[in-house]
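Ticket closed. Logging final result for BED-type domain-containing protein.
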Amino acid sequence: MGSNVEIVPITSQKHDPAWKHCQMFKNGDKVHLQCLYCSKVFKGGGIHRIKEHLAGQKGNASTCLRVPAEVKTAMQQSLDGVVVKKKKKQKIEEEIASVNRVDSVPEGFAGNCQNVNETSSTALVGGTLGNEGEGKKRRISGSSAIPIATAGVDYCTALVEKRVDGGDGVQIAIARFLYDIGAPLSAVNSDHFQPMVDAIASGGPNVVPPSYHDIRGWILKGSVEEVKSDVNKQMETLERTGCSVLVDQRNTSDGRTLLSFLVSCPERVVFVKSVDASDTVNSPDRLYELLKQVVEEVGVQHILQVITGVEDRYVIAGKKLSETFPTLYWSPCAAHCIDLILNDFAKLEWINGIIEKARSITRFVYNHTEVVNMVRRYTFGIDILQRGLTPSATNFVTLKQLVDLKDTLQGMVTSYEWIDCPFSKQPGGLEILDRVSDQSFWSSCTRIVRLTQPLLRVLRIICDRKRPPMGYVYAGMYRVKEEIKKEILKREDYVVYWNIIDQWWEGKWNVPLRAAGFYLNPKFFYSIKGNIHGDIQSGLFDCIERLVPEVDVQAQIITERNSYKNASSDFGRRVAVRTRETMLPDEWWATYGGSCPNLTRLAIRILNQACSSIGYKQDDIPIERVHDTKNGLEHQRLSDLVFYQYNSRLRDIMTKKEEQDTLDPLSYENVRFLEDWVNSKDAFIEESMKSDWAAIDPPHGNKSMLGGHSEDYINELETVFDDAEIFSGAKEGMEETIEENVAR
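Final structure:
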């Protein structure tokens, strides 16, 4: 297309479903349509030709090779609907005339329609329906029907229309089932949902569903045994790789505190058990006893660290635990630490002010149907709101998304469509115009994004479910400080942010495992010119003394370290040098560390450890039911059910692709994490109540709401570590500056 092409907004008056999957352009006096998936441009034929293109229907358009399957199906159904439209009215009349035939209604609604027919039979036909054995069809007399009968006929008519359109009866039956049992609607995103549908379909019309006793009996027993077998296989690998015990705290609505204990294995994380710790969690001594019990159950010889929150009670209990078991560490959850850093960043006056201004945009947008739809049309279905891995991360992930959509939003608020929109004249709409047009606002947003993106990248690395982060987190935090320093330049300014980082990262506790992970990652170790910093080397020595109790083995590791340091033996092979940055560090050691077996074993165990328990929370599993049940048999059954649910979810997490399904930030599952960005202000609560949720266009561009791929971030980590100030720490550097100023 030429440079004189301009985007033409697609208005809400265009009702054909194909409009949601194309973009309209104006090239001079001609209007062109472009497919959103393959970018093919159509210079004629209108929306019908686009629909044929998306549906893969041969004739006037080529087939789109990138269209999602669900979109292709929808376009095919839409085209089929044009063909059957003329026959629909006649078909509906025939179905209504034989309304006493239950099989004319989609399965899942039969009972509802039958009830309407039975209770309103007199009203439907102005008297009697006649004997069923007569096989006579009676038409409904509009003059003799009372309102309730009319409602019943309209209800059944709508269902028949759905059936005639094809296939919707199945979807409606499934949806009604979920509505009826009160299940979260996100249940359809389960990895087990489609296999269930396929199994039912393969069973044919005579499929026999399981009974209540089947589900809580032999099926549950078999499922639990299957998961236990899988968990046992994972635990068998701990002798070689070691493990981390993860402690996850959940606070219930009734004030209880439940603790879940998980074990991070190389292949996946497994759930061990849950405990009602309401009477324990506030006492460091009782908490210590509970942690001690779990360590003994898992096996102290396998555990390198126990990861908990950073509250004082956990710090006290954790340090006491490491004194009792001198071969393991207590470690704070790294993701929780990053969240606290970001939270303190957000408390800085200038950052907090910009966040509030940004929220004024999203609060108005996401409380008005017409405005939400307009934004999604201009952004091709991508939302401003993004959910982060932690509450504080959500603020900065959303702020980055807002910056990424800056040009699109500016184009929207200067369009005729926005000017004609009644909401643009309201106070909230005028405020959006002011914000989006304010260059100083965007400059501040961009600066905040540059300051926080390094932390968000480290958070993504820490929470990676497929690549152990221990070998990367130390380097990641070095890069955080480095990029903040480059962005701000003046020491008195960037030290403010450095001090916040030091307070929550290394200020209150020392974590030698992270320094040792840096030392043992060949990607970083061999990139350092000259002597490696003392803190990093001390971290390795600390791990050798604590994690290897045998003194003679410690001495052998110190000797073998020289081979690694000097890149001698197999460490110096050309293939080993080439793969320092491409292989996973633990695999690199397993491949080239044969001449140093003791150091290699220690390296593999350290490099396979987790840094966080965030990412494995399963708050929707009703663990509290286990602790509410006083009957011993039912308590055992519910414990097994939770064991299966938790471990099945964790297994699915590890096998699931990083790219998520399309997610809706306004859904209940997400809106509770985004409440500060979407909750109505009093100024327009009344206005938002007039909006219609059913008219909101669904999002289709939010493929990943948790950030980018950690592998990309790891590859972006540079291998130059030459800033002594970063290694020394902000406070030490600040003291030197003060001394210099005094001397002058």
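Residues 414 and 733 are 49 Å apart (CA to CA). No further action required.
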